[in-house]
Specification:
Layout (H helix, E strand, L loop, with lengths): L2 E3 L1 H9 L4 E3 L3 E3 L1 H10 L3 E3 H10 L7 H11 L11 H13 L5 H8 L12 E6 L2 E3 L2 H8 L7 E4 L6 E10 L4 E9 L6 E3 L2 H7 L5 E2 L10 E4 L4 E4 L3 E4 L2 E4 L1 H6 L7 E6 L5 E10 L6 E5 H7 L6 E5 L1
Parallel strand pairs: 1-3, 2-4, 5-18, 6-9, 10-14, 11-14, 15-17
Antiparallel strand pairs: 5-19, 6-10, 7-8, 8-9, 8-12, 12-13, 15-18, 16-17, 16-19
Helix pairs in contact: 1-2
Bound molecules: zinc ion.
Family: Belongs to the PduL family.
Cofactor: Zn(2+)
Protein name: Phosphate propanoyltransferase
Length: 308
Amino acid sequence: MKRLISAKDVLDAAKEHKDLTVDKNTIVTAQAADLAWENGVLLVSDSDAQESSSKGCAATKAPEAHEDAIASCGATKEQEPVLTASQIEEIMTAAVDKGLWTADELQSLLHGNAPATQELPPVTVGVSNRHIHLSQEHLEQLFGKGHELTPIKDLSQPGQFASKECVTLVGPKGVIEKVRVLGPVRARTQVEILAADTFKLGVPQAIRLSGHLEGTPGITVVGPEGTVVLPEGVIVASRHIHMTPEDAARRDLHDGQVVSIKFGGERGGQLDEVVIRATRTGALDCHIDTEEANALHIKNGSVVEVVK
Ligand SMILES: [Zn+2]
């Protein structure tokens, strides 16, 4: 069984001031070997490790002492590699082909997991107005049996669209008309309104991520063919940034992490409590609602800075 020493292993070892043991079954990537050299991590061969402990070989970690240490300990940089560079490349390519690694993960491995900030695309903003997602059952209750949504505009997330259909929200204190239905249909109906709408409609404010509907207020939804009384499902959406797990890793972020976004200009400012939503199909986009956007003069497509 071959063991791979990657750039990351070397950097981890450097952090902990440890050396790495190599034997004939260990593959050291070229990058790892270079990093070991730069960071003063000794690649001690298995037999030498035993020897050096019995002989008390005093290897120091300073890079300039490294060469001497290697020479005196007998761990060689010139040692015959177990695999050739092209064999290693072949193994890595096969791993990507078989889906064991994504190309991005391999890239990040080869670069010691250092986020390549200069190559990262900027985080742009998608501004949402109030809208509703419907279940198929509720769609048919509101628009008639067998009704299907008519897409009029694609949204930033793959497959999501704004539809021609609109509904009216009726709360205990007021009514809001022309609320856009977003498609495709979902498992559960969800109403996303602005904070000011909660006062107009007379419903409590439940700030939630999409899909977290337990304990949220309900509302009455009116369509051209019928009415649905929702016992729950009305939220003011938590601001969030969509991205893939690979993109999150490159930015040193992870799913569920809470960050801030910063925006300059005349009404510039910072919004905290922005949740990272890293999903396989996530397209990089920061979602805030029209109130949040207006407060900072942010428009659709504005670029924001992510602050950890
Ligand atoms: Zn979103």
